[in-house]
Amino acid sequence: MSSLTRVGLGLHFNLLLRGHAKRIVINDADPAIHAFWETLVDRPDELIRLIWAHAPTMETRRWSQQVLRDLANHTTAEVGFAAFFLNRTSRSGILNGGVIGGKEQAGPYKLDARYNRQRLVARIEAVAAYSD
């Protein structure tokens, strides 16, 4: 069993998905990160629905930031999705970091550079299949 932080999480999932680990345990004190994992494990279809429902736009990013400022007035799935969206659209994956491509989206990479919905949904489905 491996206790994980956000650092190196991709490596641990690769080990799990390739059969090199039988189980991983995720532990995070951040309520938004906890909401993401709770939704992925318990209600992956809801997370996937939110991914398809919200296009990777600056409007979705602003909505996600607002959700994380007001956790009490949003569902666990909305909080989890907001954390996921900000992770995928922020430089270095830092939730309160700057947006990939800058606010004006004038950089060489745009907000959706790490947000391929089809690929992300496939990864979520693969991880959810291992949850117990």
Describe this structure in words.
With 132 residues, the chain is mostly helical. α2 crosses α3 (44-53), α2 packs across α5 (76-89) and α4 packs across α5. It has helices spanning 9-17, 31-42, 44-53, 58-69, 76-89, 117-128; strands at 3-4, 25-26. The longest helix is centred in the middle third of the chain and has 14 residues, at 76-89. It has a two-stranded parallel ribbon with strand order 1-2. It has one domain (30-128). The model is unreliable at 1-8 (pLDDT under 50). α1 (9-17) links the parallel β1 (3-4) and β2 (25-26). The chain contains 6 helices and 2 strands, in the order βαβααααα. It is globular, with a radius of gyration of 15 Å.
What labels describe this entry?
132 residues, mainly alpha, two-stranded parallel sheet, 2 strands, disordered N terminus, transferase, site-specific DNA-methyltransferase (adenine-specific) activity, S-adenosyl-L-methionine, sequence-specific DNA binding, MeTrfase_D12
